[in-house]
Write a structure and sequence with these properties.
The complex is a heterodimer. By secondary structure, chain A is mainly alpha-helical. Chain A has four helices and no strands. Chain B starts with a strand and ends with a helix.
Amino acid sequence: MNTHTDINKTEFEQELAQHIITALNLDISLAEIKPLAPLYGDDGLGIDSIDVLEISLVLTKQYGVQLRSDDENNAKIFGSLRSLADHIQQNRTK
Amino acid sequence: MPSIPLLKFHRPESVFAWQDGSPISAQRFLTDVISLAKRLPAHSYVLNLCNDRYRFVVGFAAAMLRGQISLLPPSHTPDLIERLSGHYAGLYCLTDGAHGIGSLQTMSYPNLSEVGLMQTPMPEIPATQVAAIVFTSGSTGNPMPNEKTWGAISLSVTAEASRLGILNRGDLTLLGTVPPQHMYGFESTALIALQGGVILHSAKPFFPADISAVLNEIPGPRALITTPVHLRALLTSNTDLPKLELIVCATAPLSRELALQAVERFGAPLQEIYGFTEAGQIASRETASTDKWRTFDGLSLHQKGDATYVSGGHVIGELPLSDITELHSDTTFRLHGRTSDLINIAGKRTSLASLNHHLNTIEGVLDGVFLMPDEQEGCTARLAAFVVAPELDAHEILKALRLRVDPVFLPRPILKMDALPRNATGKLPRASLDKLLQQSKRG
């Protein structure tokens, strides 16, 4: 089902995944967050809108990134751990 | 039969709403309402899914003019919509998005900008007309209807606006972070504009940076209608926050500490609102300075046995409160936790009984129960579920639940068990479930 299991996370993706697990109090191990699997919905982490708000706070605090909902790329940004990591790398202020 | 005008305070030229940075006059609003009313399909019930708050209110008002009833279910899961359309024949959906919902007949919100301004008398709606049906999640998975008449709606939000000190404040804009499709946002961001004479804002900003941007572009005094979840996010973020005239908070208990921070940061009083679906809002308190609730004018409380009842004002008859209440007088009280199994996460309501029902109807689930852990400071509490289902894994259970319950109520974690710790009478003592959850966290 998940075809992305053999891809390794980068160091930054590891760090980000750990922040997400902590912020959302998720009951999973770091290894279970695959870099290319979707964060939303059934086949991914199943995060919802409250989770996105929690994650946004972490991103602001850790990396100085402010998310906006009129950002047309939001669905893409939260598409996977990798796309979220890329967005932060491009927009981080700290 | 007495009737009540659609707008109680606005004059034709006064600003009724802000939408995409532009003001909309009361006359434009009435023009839109009347034009939309003419185009609505001839059915009795409408599910108004408009995301834009202004369009939602136009849709609600247009439906009333046609004698149609707006349904406000607790969620929009396929399972629930199916049940509703079985019960309310001809239910259709009004939407300003790309999609309708399930198999419902869909009407897209039309472009009304071409319609010339109409000089029209103020529409009057009979006080006894049922304007909306708001649902609570019943214990068998079938939602329980609560009819709201236009008269009761008018009384309720007039009392609210009066308590908040904003009645007929035609210069004050209310910005809500909550959707108008649920009771709190319905009353405190949508209906209050119609009957309280304040200005509605069409946006529903989500991230702290969004909320801040919209607040900053509102000319003139503004109030923020929000929840503890959004408030905490706003205060934790380092976004630039303008001064407000008022903060209104509801849906979940707000801590004194967070209330104090909000009051300081926004330079405005914070009123927390208390209510429940059957009665709507009934009381408020200034959480930063008191833990005592005061009922809205016209309402009073009385004790009967173990239960506290509210009556008067917009409440028809008397209704029991779902929380353990300590009465100080017939209009002031403290709350001490819930007597019932109501769950409220981020403004969405359901009951444990309803969730348990859905869990146990999943094929392969032999026994199962939800648990709402005690409040945790600093993060949104999530439900846990204990499930006996030898043939299913947690992922499959989650997938089946997703079709039946709103995502915010999906359990985290799902704990698979060989048997639930039922006592001799078949009940599940809360303490044993708490203990199991603690053990799983440590394990």
